[in-house]
Amino acid sequence: MAPKFVATILLFLPLLANIVNAQEPAIFDITKYGAKPDADISQALTTAWKEACLSNTSSRIVIPPGTWSLSQAALAGPNKSPIELQVQGTLKAPVGQLPNKDGNWITINYVNHLEISGGGVFDGQGTEGWKQNDCHKNKNCVKLPLNLSFNFINNTYIHDVTTKDSKNFHVNCISSHNVKFQRFTISAPGDSPNTDGIHLGRDSNITIIDSIISTGDDCVSIGDESTEIHIENVTCGPGHGISVGSLGSNTAEKDVVGIYVKNCTFLSTMNGVRVKTWPSAPAHLQVKDLHFEDIIMDNVSYPIIIDQEYCPHNLCNLKDPSFVKISNVFIKNIRGTSHFPEAVTMVCSRTNPCENVEIADIDLTYSGNLGPTTTKCANVKPTLVGKLNPPICANMTGAQSS
Ligand SMILES: *[C@@H]1O[C@H](CO)[C@@H](O)[C@H](O)[C@H]1NC(C)=O
Ligand SMILES: *[C@@H]1O[C@H](CO)[C@@H](O)[C@H](O)[C@H]1NC(C)=O
Ligand SMILES: *[C@@H]1O[C@H](CO)[C@@H](O)[C@H](O)[C@H]1NC(C)=O
Ligand SMILES: *[C@@H]1O[C@H](CO)[C@@H](O)[C@H](O)[C@H]1NC(C)=O
Ligand SMILES: *[C@@H]1O[C@H](CO)[C@@H](O)[C@H](O)[C@H]1NC(C)=O
Ligand SMILES: *[C@@H]1O[C@H](CO)[C@@H](O)[C@H](O)[C@H]1NC(C)=O
Ligand SMILES: *[C@@H]1O[C@H](CO)[C@@H](O)[C@H](O)[C@H]1NC(C)=O
Ligand SMILES: CC(=O)N[C@H]1CO[C@H](CO)[C@@H](O)[C@@H]1O
Question: Which residues does the entry assign to the active site, renumbered to this chain (predicted)?
Fold first, then answer.
């Protein structure tokens, strides 16, 4: 090697080291802030978070391996620089009530450039709470807290962590933009009430990818004002599947645009992909650009459902139609088995029929003894493409099929 070249490299080495150092985040290890095993770490975590928010360079809050008790934490920005919350250990919620009964277990609000990582576990210890939960049948029930509540967060990457046994919804992600969940595991038993996996609402550009969601309620539920939601390579089950809605009950609701569910697998879920809107409900809004593609249904009770007469427990009436307009729906390459005969349901609003619906390459078989696989359709004229098993909308009520 030419001496001059070596000299040049030597000259630049300190500079290189500086560049590397500049990229290393400042570390905020909770044990440096008084966190001890077997004691509530909420104070240590909150203090570390506050200091990280003030950091002029990017920061990393570290929760080391081990089991840590966390009674509750409400963490908020603004943050001066990107923050990473690296959870290497297991965070355990209290078994009983949280200190602030009106709050969630862990809330993170108003943060820009957040990363949650580390391979650790958020353990909601919900088993006790589920027994008390009767919200599915009692309107005045005591609402149990959410496990992870993310609101007004932007440019966030949440990956390689697990949330288990939440007392209620596992994750609520509201009013947030550019958020990606990857290798995000959710686990709770199939009979745990109201334990939705990820609930989205008033969000844009959310990606949920390469993840496994097993729970007692919706795998992913998508509320109003959601746009550009991408769900890809996600396995759901047990649970209730991926749901848009229920929509229509509140006049303030805004449009849902751009939902992409691709390359997903549903294992023994109650529904596969579903859109539900309330009849006799006041809100006029649009639901459009829905893409459900390359999906495997394995023993799914109701694989494909658009239901604009959604009325569980007969808590509403069917006198008036839904005013939610559904259009541009693409359902393509859906294969597998249905646990009940009615594999495809498309019951659209009689005053706002579904428009521009394309259904291509469906192969759903029903192996039970309740007769052949069926479809139920109303107020929709889908464009049919490719091989379709069962024949789609062969039996129509309401508007005629094309
Ligand atoms: C961060 O930057 C501000 C403004 O440049 C400066 O006043 C402050 O002292 C810095 N804080 C730290 C902790 O370096
Ligand atoms: C997030 O983005 C929205 C929309 O651009 C913006 O209004 C909001 O202030 C941002 N929030 C944060 C915490 O950066
Ligand atoms: C959507 O979010 C991802 C991060 O998950 C980001 O890389 C991408 O630029 C965002 N797209 C838009 C259009 O903002
Ligand atoms: C799909 O997700 C699963 C589960 O997280 C993962 O093991 C697999 O590598 C992912 N596939 C691709 C192509 O990334
Ligand atoms: C599609 O999903 C299957 C099953 O989850 C996974 O094995 C495969 O890697 C995924 N492919 C892509 C491109 O994500
Ligand atoms: C199929 O799904 C039903 C209803 O969810 C469930 O009871 C049954 O155990 C499942 N069968 C298999 C083989 O997984
Ligand atoms: C159509 O309806 C008849 C009678 O209700 C039923 O026997 C048949 O299986 C249905 N066919 C399809 C494809 O839904
Ligand atoms: C979200 C949620 O339900 N959080 C629960 C997460 O688990 C802790 C532990 O019970 C519960 O207290 C929280 O309520």
Answer: 240
Residues 226, 92 share a domain: no
SS3 91: strand
- Residues 6 or more apart in contact with residue 170 via CB below 8 angstroms: 124, 146, 147, 148, 163, 186, 188, 195, 196, 197, 198, 215
CA of 265, closest atom in ligand 5: 5
Burial of 160 (0-12, 13-18, 19+ CB in 10 A): middle
CA dist 58 and 78 (Å) reads: 13
CA of 373 to the centre of ligand 7 (A): 8
Q: Is residue 41 part of a domain?
A: yes
- Look up residue 70 and give its two tokens: 């966390």
How do residues 279-295 score in pLDDT, each as one tens digit? 999 999 999 999 999 99
The span from the CA of 252 to the CA of 314, in Å, is: 24
Task: Give residue 168's domain range.
Answer: 26-131+141-187
**Residue 260: Cβ within 10 Å count:** 16
Question: Does ligand 4 lie within 6 Å of residue 182's CB atom?
Answer: no
